[in-house]
Amino acid sequence: MMTAVDLREAAPSTAAEILRRARDLAPALRERADEIERARRLPPDVVAALRATGVFRMGFARDLGGPELDSIAQTEVIEALSYGDPAAGWCAMIGSDTGLYAAFLDRDVSRRMFPSLDMATAGLLFPGGRADAVDGGWRLTGRWKFGSGVTHADWVVSGAFRFRDGVPEPGPGGVGQGSILLMVPRADVEVHDTWHTTGLAGSGSCDYTITDVFVPAEHTLYFSEVRSGTGVLAQPEVHMRNMPGVALGVARAALDHARETALAAGRAEDYRTQTILADCEADFAATRHAVYGALRRQHQVLTAGGTLEDLTALERAALPLSRRHAFRTARSIVTRLYDLAQTSAIYRPSPLDRWLRDTATMCQHVVAQDRILQTAGAHLLGARPSFPLALGITAVQR
């Protein structure tokens, strides 16, 4: 059982307390990492320990009783948990979106949906299903992949194409087909045990299906429509901001492990060890500063009453670019340290083996792919980005 976090403690209410609990839990997560990977999902006591850190509640606004951590503080928490285990950090990152979604729902609806602020949400935002308009809401059917954390979630959010009277509804500006995000209780979801992967096995990112489930209109949302809340978290791309914490956490863990291993093996005077570690540390420092620098500039503009439109093109592009770079750099660092360790790294007891597979897998996510480069490059050139939401750009969707 997890003992690093006392599950009887009162719920944390500050960024400092949540971060402290996350750091306290990290060693226990490291000890359980092999077990988590073998299970291909988080064990129930690990989920309970994550809830006790306050990570799932950190995005809830203060008027809902939450601590309302800004995106900088959220990223630090995810980084601390991922230092212990990337799969647990990934699930914490996904599950913590619950409070962020609340800004896109009516306040009274959020209070009814989330009687506890420690409820986790999972799901795939890209349209993978069909939502047919009916009186009072929608009927939802579909199958989605990559339901990270769906094995322990309380709510599941899914993207679906909209239909009315059997006819597809148009997308923004009449282009393409319109979509919508719908939230359903986990009890209405069937999970399929499909998550046999290279890495991040412990995230339990299984396929799931929802079949002819009625979803009231009040349980649906659009990122183009903030229904309640104001400020730095009531923004369309808010759910992407803390993602680099996973990459930064595992990279830091690998660097510390490599240095400790080198010292224990008496390789402090080895030139190759010195230069590889230093080169990786330089890449990590620059990458981490880029992530937090972009977040701080965004925070500065938003807290001053500005909008994302008040960022320069370079500042706005820096947000998705720093995210992508964090994932790519983490994979590069782990790969170089894996090579430095040579044959000792190839055995499953070595965390470098698991981290190599974890970073390879997380780099396949859209936020770490070339679509982000096209999106940022197009924005800088005044052209059309293929993934505008990564920049916080939305169009009226209905």
Automatic annotation (TrEMBL):
Q: Recite the UniProt keywords alphabetically.
A: Oxidoreductase
Which branch of life, at top level?
Answer: Bacteria
Q: Where would I find the Acyl-CoA dehydrogenase/oxidase N-terminal domain in this sequence? A: 20-100
Q: Kindly list the biological process annotations in GO that this record carries.
A: fatty acid beta-oxidation using acyl-CoA dehydrogenase
Give one Pfam family: Acyl-CoA_dh_2
Q: Name one GO molecular function term.
A: flavin adenine dinucleotide binding
Query: What protein family does this chain belong to?
Result: Belongs to the HpaH/HsaA monooxygenase family.
Entry protein name: Alkylation response protein AidB-like acyl-CoA dehydrogenase
Instruction: Please report the organism this UniProt entry assigns to the protein.
Output: Pseudosporangium ferrugineum
